[in-house]
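Chain X: structure tokens wanted.
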Amino acid sequence: MKLFMNKCIFLVVPFLFFGCSSLNTPNSLEQITFNIINNNTSKEISFNEFIDEILKYDIVLIGEEHNNHKHILVETKIIEALNSKKDVEVVLEMMSVDKQIKIDNAKINGYENKNLLKEIDWSDSWDKSYYKRLVLFIFNSKIDLVAGNLSKSEIQTIFNGAYPLQGKASTTFQVKEKIKDMIIDTSHKIDDTKTIDKFVQIQQYKDRRMADKLVSSNKTAILIAGKYHTRKDIGIPLHIEDFNKSKTFISIGLQTNIKNEYVDYSFKIK
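Answer:
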């Protein structure tokens, strides 16, 4: 049983909270179109208007579906536009913090495009065919890349029994229950209450770690993470509030069928 649960930690957890979509593989932004809705005004805006509006924020949260290549293209476009106007850095859920030294070494020592993902020890849990384009763009644009996620050893420690996460907005009973319901909805193979509670704790520790990286940045920090992590009602926004109320942030949802109250801007990608 213990062996089975250990496998669950590293095989189930990476896919529990990602969301699903059909496989989409356009080659460039010219092959996709999208509409942008400002959910605070319920008005459709242009991409240039969108960029002008989000420039004033310290933190930009972008929630994606991890197997939708269109999202990678839109993320690249947003990062490129913001980087042309101010200094930015990108925090990735897909990189665990123990790999930051490899990221930094690749920047210092140089790299070949074809070998970059190997140089930074990119995990096979994240499809290289999707993320290679994004990572190469970040590196080749001289944008700082920050590993934002927990390491495997940290996840194991939390699963085995870590001190409860402390917070005001982020750790309420209501927030934890919403995360628990989401886990049950997205993974019908887990029905043990204690195990689900541990996954809730892992999810919250991941959100806290990414929030820490974001609020610690002295540049505009852009996060690329799964759609549940960036929701205002259960995710990283609550941890940012607990960390540092002076940091301003905005949440962007690229996924379909997201409630307006979960994010500030919705992309309707075609």
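The radius of gyration is 18 Å. The chain has eleven helices and eight strands.

Cheers.
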